[in-house]
Description:
Layout (H helix, E strand, L loop, with lengths): L1 E7 L8 E7 L8 H11 L3 E7 L8 E6 L4 E2 L4 H12 L7 E5 L2 E7 L5 E6 L3 E3 L6 H5 L5 E5 L5 E5 L3 H5 L5 H6 L6 E7 L9 E7 L4 E4 L6 H12 L3 E7 L3 E9 L2 E6 L1 E8 L3
Parallel strand pairs: 2-3, 4-6, 11-12, 13-15
Antiparallel strand pairs: 1-2, 1-18, 3-4, 4-5, 6-7, 7-8, 8-17, 9-10, 10-11, 12-13, 13-14, 15-16, 16-17
Amino acid sequence: MRIRIVDAFTDRPFGGNPAAVVLLDSAGFPADDWLQRVAAEVNLSETAFAHPLPPGGDADWALRWFTPVTEVDMCGHATLATAHVLHTTGTATGPVRFTARCGILTAETGPDGAVTMDFPTSDLTPVAVPDGLAAALGAEPVAVRDTSADVGDLLVELADERTVRALAPDFAALVARPLSARGIIATALAEDPDGAYQFVSRCFFPAYGIDEDPVTGSAHTALAPYWSARLRRDDLTGHQGGRRTGLVRTRLRGPRTLLTGRAVTVVDGELHA
């Protein structure tokens, strides 16, 4: 069985966010325990498993995502990685429809290799700053939003780009006293909003076995409506990451958000299990 590691939301190896992709020949998924064991063995933020569906339905492939410790409801970068593998191997052509826990997702690869995905837009609810959040992050929040169930994060605006870049969270504190269903999206306006990107972010999910996720597609379903409302622009680009970074182009379309990025395969091997 082939397994590939793809760096998503980047155009060069060793950037962006790595995801493992396993395309299954079966008509269904193997046992959940096996899927979780593979994801734990790979030990990346996400491992995607996909199998083809019969023609004529609402979707072409069934898709699931696992962190090293649990299955998740939505994942952007591993969906991008899966679409990239399907396109570059000739397994699929044209738009690809996935059925996943969060509904039907589509991905279309352009002539330049960039993949545009159609995801549900996250609902954002203003909330008070939770006790302990500033201490755990090491920075004072400017505003906090709770995101919809599919995302399950707290979106936390900080003072400026420099503050986001300098974050060194207390992960033990975040795990000991969970502040959200999944994790924390820390964000700020870019120092130069008229430049290559308009906002920055970093994402922390220690309760899911991921201290920091380099470039989180699903987080941008919340970042896009947040910053589009602030900047009064539907088309934006976000820059995410600490040690590893990447770019996500967003286009807000009401209840749907389009996420666009590039990807590159860095490992193509055999899974013996």
